């Protein structure tokens, strides 16, 4: 059997009664979170609104035909597939009475074979360990309950990723449909099945599938938007101009790569600078349409990109604690577009702007807001910077967005939450405190890698060394993973510190042979004689006061 590749719609993949799928047990667990879902819903709605008649490409699916189980093993694409099945079940739970037979048929077929009701062959099986939970909570029908807030929902559902994501989908869909009241949910569901497409690759063996998976992830697709943009801009140039264009393009590319950056990221930032709005299609098509509309020739364009690239590189090579902290954000396109534009346009309020952006994006991050909350405000800020508007206009935009989304209240509540450890912002918040522990702005960038660890002063394994004599069970539950109990330490020292008592831990932290460079850990050594609830209450108050001062708007 040879490798077969095709472009297939979700209808072809999920609503074909000859195709059934399963996740092999060796695959990692389902891990998509609220941000992944928010990105997906944003992309789907944008594609539906802007390019309803065109296919929306949603990645690849690498399969092996498992003849023994009469199913396809999913080697790559399981996160996406699981998510689309959950989305189908959410559609069924929320909108069943509002949709027609065609949409209902798509949904039912994607859950199980409609023509074998007695055998009830499920379309999709997750790995054996999680299948029962997935089937009971999602496939058999979602019974949505009402919760006061996300935290109550997460606590009640006991970290069941499948049903938690169903609730996230419910909120995301309802918010989008409230925002775009003209969208008919039935048409939207049918569009998803008919127009969302994936590259489906069926391999003869697991070995060949893994090779394909590695090629796709290591090298990407052969012709990128950058390649298309370059060839399109060069197409009508004469030989002399083509030489000039190629030399300038290569100079830009070399300069970007020599600084450890990527040409695609630069061009994406340039696209945002150019259109100051959400792109509706591929980078190359969007830029080419804009160039045509503004009647720019290719040499003017490449010279403009070259000048812009200098500002982009200058920004990302800055030795500046505000820039370092912004680099930890997942959605870097917004702040990089805004601040590169500010440098490129010689915006006089650059320093005030970077501080405002740090406060705005971190408050949204800690509050648990999705990218949808910050997107439109980011575009308005970008436009104001491009127009060289006063910084007070930008501050007003930010404050209005924070007020409208209850961001301030949620951010403060989450800082005080007893489960800060494990949040995606736990290290960045501690690093913020580290960078601002002194007035010196000439820090070295600290990457989020394995060399830096979060240390629990009150250890997770607390029954050794008399920790259980200092903290009750309830106190331990409240404080072990709270912000006040967390600090930064080197990997080697974290292994040594382990579960010792506080006196011994301080000795290890202060050991000159393995001296920690983190000021916030030194602060614990010098300012706390013991570690108990009173100490934690004091440190929580101090840390939150420091964070509030850093992120004040």
Automatic annotation (TrEMBL):
Domain GmrSD restriction endonucleases N-terminal: from-to ranges: 10-233
Source domain of life: Bacteria
Domain GmrSD restriction endonucleases C-terminal: 417-545
Protein name from the UniProt record: DUF262 domain-containing protein
């Amino acid at each position: 059997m040879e490798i077969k590749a095709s472009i297939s719609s979700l209808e072809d993949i999920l609503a074909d009664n000859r195709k059934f799928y399963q996740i092999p047990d060796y695959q990692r667990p389902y891990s998509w979170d609220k941000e992944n879902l928010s990105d997906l819903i944003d992309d789907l709605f944008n594609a539906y609104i802007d390019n309803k008649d065109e296919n929306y490409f949603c990645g690849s699916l690498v399969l092996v035909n498992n003849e023994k189980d009469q199913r396809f093993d999913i080697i790559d694409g399981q996160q996406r597939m699981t998510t689309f099945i959950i989305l189908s079940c959410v559609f069924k739970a929320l909108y069943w009475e509002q949709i027609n037979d065609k949409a209902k048929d798509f949904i039912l077929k994607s859950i199980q074979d409609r023509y074998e009701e007695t055998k009830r062959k499920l379309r999709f099986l997750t790995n054996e360990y999680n299948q029962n939970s997935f089937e009971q909570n999602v496939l058999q029908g979602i019974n949505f309950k009402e919760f006061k807030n996300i935290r109550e929902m997460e606590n009640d559902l006991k970290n069941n990723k499948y049903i938690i994501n169903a609730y996230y989908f419910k909120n995301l869909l309802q918010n989008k449909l409230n925002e775009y009241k003209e969208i008919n949910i039935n048409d939207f569901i049918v569009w998803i099945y008919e127009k969302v497409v994936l590259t489906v690759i069926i391999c003869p063996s697991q070995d060949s599938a893994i090779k394909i998976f590695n090629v796709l992830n290591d090298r990407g697709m052969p012709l990128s938007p950058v390649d298309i943009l370059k060839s399109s801009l060069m197409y009508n140039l004469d030989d002399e101009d083509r030489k000039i264009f190629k030399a300038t393009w290569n100079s830009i590319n070399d300069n970007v790569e020599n600084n450890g950056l990527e040409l695609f990221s630069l061009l994406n930032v340039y696209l945002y600078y150019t259109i100051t709005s959400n792109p509706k299609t591929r980078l190359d098509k969007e830029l080419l349409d804009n160039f045509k509309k503004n009647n720019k020739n290719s040499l003017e364009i490449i010279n403009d990109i070259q000048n812009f690239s200098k500002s982009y590189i200058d920004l990302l090579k800055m030795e500046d604690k505000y820039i370092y902290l912004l680099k930890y954000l997942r959605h870097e396109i917004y702040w990089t577009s805004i601040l590169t534009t500010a440098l490129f346009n010689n915006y006089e309020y650059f320093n005030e702007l970077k501080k405002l952006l740090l406060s705005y994006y971190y408050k949204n991050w800690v509050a648990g807001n999705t990218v949808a909350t910050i997107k439109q405000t980011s575009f308005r800020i970008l436009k104001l910077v491009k127009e060289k508007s006063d910084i007070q206009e930008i501050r007003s935009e930010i404050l209005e967005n924070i007020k409208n989304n209850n961001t301030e209240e949620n951010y403060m509540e989450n800082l005080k939450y007893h489960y800060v450890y494990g949040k995606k912002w736990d290290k960045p918040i501690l690093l913020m405190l580290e960078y601002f522990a002194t007035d010196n702005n000439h820090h070295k960038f600290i990457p989020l890698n394995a060399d830096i660890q979060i240390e629990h002063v009150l250890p997770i394994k607390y029954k050794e060394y008399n920790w259980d004599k200092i903290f009750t069970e309830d106190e331990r539950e409240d404080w072990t993973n709270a912000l006040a109990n967390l600090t930064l330490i080197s990997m080697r020292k974290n292994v040594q510190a382990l579960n010792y008592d506080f006196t011994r831990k301080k000795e290890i932290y202060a050991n000159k042979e393995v001296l920690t460079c983190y000021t916030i850990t030194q602060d614990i050594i010098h300012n706390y004689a013991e570690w108990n609830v009173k100490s934690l209450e004091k440190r929580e108050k101090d840390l939150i006061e420091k964070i509030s001062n850093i992120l004040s708007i």
